[in-house]
C-alpha cells in the first residue's frame, strides 16, 4: 500500500515450527485450514524443529536456504509461517527467499479482510491491519537514501516514512472515532433491550465449531455458514421466542482461535461486547474435535480478556452426528441446573433441548406468574407497567388488578420492599396459582 514489496500470490509454502514450549504450540492441521480459508493453494508444507528461535530469521540459515530452493522449485509466490514474526525477521526472510512472507497474524488479518461484509466489520479489519502495518512500514523504503545530515545529501526516504506514519496515525484516529460511535449505538440498543426486559444470549466458541449453523437452526435466519475458519465476522442479532420465558435476543459472534492476535481483540472490542454484556453465553464446542479441550481453554482465555469470564455459560456440544453412541441430551449439575447440551445443529437434533435449557437458566432470574393487586397497590401496578413487565391485565370483583407479569425478581422484590412488605409474604398472599 505504502511501499514496494515482493508480489503476492496464491501458491504458498507453509512453514510450521515444532518447539518445546507447549504454551506457544500451534496446530499444523489448523494452520492448513487457515491457509485454505484464505484461498491459498498449498504447494509445500515444511516442519521445522526449532527450540531456540533465531533473531534474524526465526529459523536456521540452513532451513532458509532449503526454503529458497523449494520456492524456486515449486514456483511459490508466498511463504506463510505458523508463528508471529518480528518486522525485521519478515524483512530478512523476504530478502533471502525473494518472495512475499506472511506470519500467522497477517494470515488471520487477510481472512478477516475477506470476510468483512458490513461497514463496521470493514472498519475493524482496517484498524487492525493499519496497526499491524505501522510496525512494518520501514521495510518498504530501504531502497531509498537515508538522511546524511549535510546540504545536498538529504535523501527522500526519511521524509516519506514520516509522511506515511503521520497518514497512518490520522487514519487510525479516524477509524477509532467511528468505532466509538458504533460502540455507543450498540450500548444504546442494549439499554433499550434491558428497559424492555429482553434477555440477551450470545453464541461464543472456537472458530468453525458450528455457531452460525446453530444460530440459523434456532432462529430460522440465513446467516452465512460454511465449513471454514472465520466464516462469521460481523455480529448478527435475532429475536428468539422461548416457551415459558418469552422473547430473547440471540447474537452470533466472531469465532475465537488459538493465540488470537491482541490487535484483533482490541479492534473488535465493539463486536465482542455483545458477548461481554450478555445475560447468558452459549459456548458452542465441536464435540468431534480431538483437541476440543485445548480449544475450550483458548475460548475461556479470550472471554477473560474481554471481561466476560464471570458470566453464566451453557456448553453446547455440537456435531454429535459425527459421533457414535452419543444422543442429544441435557447434562445437569448436582443442583439440577443445565450445564451442557449435546446437539447436532446441522441435522437439527437437540434444538428443543437448547431452548429448554436456556429458558431454565434465564427463568431463574425472572418472576413469571399472575399477581392480584388490590386498589391500594395502584402505585406498584403503575411501576410494573413502566417496566414493560405486564403481559396482560384483568380485574377481580373488588376492582383490583389481576396482572400476568414477567419481571426480573430483583425489580419485583424492590417494588415489594417499597410498599413495606417482605417479598416471601407478599408473593404468598398475592400470587395466583
UniProtKB/TrEMBL annotation:
GTP binds at residues 205-212, 230-234, 252-255, 318-321, 344-346. Residues 199-366 form the Hflx-type G domain. GO terms for cellular component: cytoplasm. Keywords: Coiled coil, Cytoplasm, GTP-binding, Magnesium, Metal-binding, Nucleotide-binding. SUPFAM superfamilies: EF-G C-terminal domain-like, P-loop containing nucleoside triphosphate hydrolases. InterPro entries: EFG_III/V (IPR035647), G_HFLX_dom (IPR030394), GTP-bd (IPR006073), GTP-bd_M (IPR032305), GTPase_HflX (IPR016496), GTPase_HflX_N (IPR025121), GTPase_HflX_N_sf (IPR042108), P-loop_NTPase (IPR027417). Its cofactor is Mg(2+). The keyword Phosphoprotein does not apply. Residues 165-192 form a coiled coil. Mg(2+) binds at residues 212, 232. CDD domains: HflX. Its main location: cytoplasm. It is found in: Cytoplasm. Gene3D superfamilies: 6.10.250.2860, GTPase HflX, N-terminal domain (3.40.50.11060), P-loop containing nucleotide triphosphate hydrolases (3.40.50.300). Belongs to the TRAFAC class OBG-HflX-like GTPase superfamily. HflX GTPase family. Monomer. Associates with the 50S ribosomal subunit. GTPase that associates with the 50S ribosomal subunit and may have a role during protein synthesis or ribosome biogenesis. This is GTPase HflX. The gene is hflX.
